[in-house]
Amino acid sequence: MKYTRYDLKRGKDNKTFFTVIFLVLILAFVFGTIIFKLFIKSPISSNANTTDVTQISNSKDKSEPSNSMSNSQSTNFIAVQGGIYKSKENADAEKALLSQYGTPFAVTDGDKVRMFLGIYAEEQGERIIKSLTEQKVDNSKMLFSVNNKDLCDAEILEIINANVQILNKLAEKNVKAIQTEELKKWCSALKKVDKNSKNISVLNDIKEHVNKLPKELTKENVEENYIYIYGILKKLSS
């Protein structure tokens, strides 16, 4: 009588072989994904302390203002203030204190000096104030409410917001510089607005300011740019 012989040992070996191959493929996929995220998807330049502006902006369509600003009637920014001083020595002491938390800047107001930690989008500004208060650091806030009535206003707000985010990022200890090429390209690609818009002169001024920024912003550039943005916000909210 004929019978079929089964080699059980070979079957077991084949099962082990395919299991090993399957595990190797899974591990290869996992490590490949990790390497992709670390070295390919991240747009950070070869200098670990230099950040590209594209890492900061979240706008989906860089030729148009984002919905978060274009749909609201006004947008608020907060300048976190440390104090107001007549004495240069006191102002310098306050600046040294605030330097532990960011990159402060000073604005001359008559015969006094206002010392600020920074300018922030409203939500982040409130978080900064809360953190300073919890650490018993005296502070107050200056609120700038900017109208958003047309495309011109929306573009101004987007450019201000982009600049504020960059300056906030530069205040972080591990960030030494930020490339501005993408910011300039994005700014120049914004839609043309009505030449009769109320704030067209402000829009043209801030676009020119962005275009004149150095290729790389460092912490040394923070104070002068904060002062510029402060002046623009004061003009728009007055």
From TrEMBL:
What UniProt keywords apply to this chain's record, in alphabetical order?
Answer: Membrane, Transmembrane, Transmembrane helix
Would the keyword Transmembrane turn up in this protein's UniProt record?
Answer: yes
Native organism is Clostridium thailandense
Membrane spanning residue stretches: 20-40
Q: Where is this region: Disordered?
A: 51-73
Q: What is this protein called?
A: SPOR domain-containing protein
Keyword Transmembrane helix among record annotations: yes
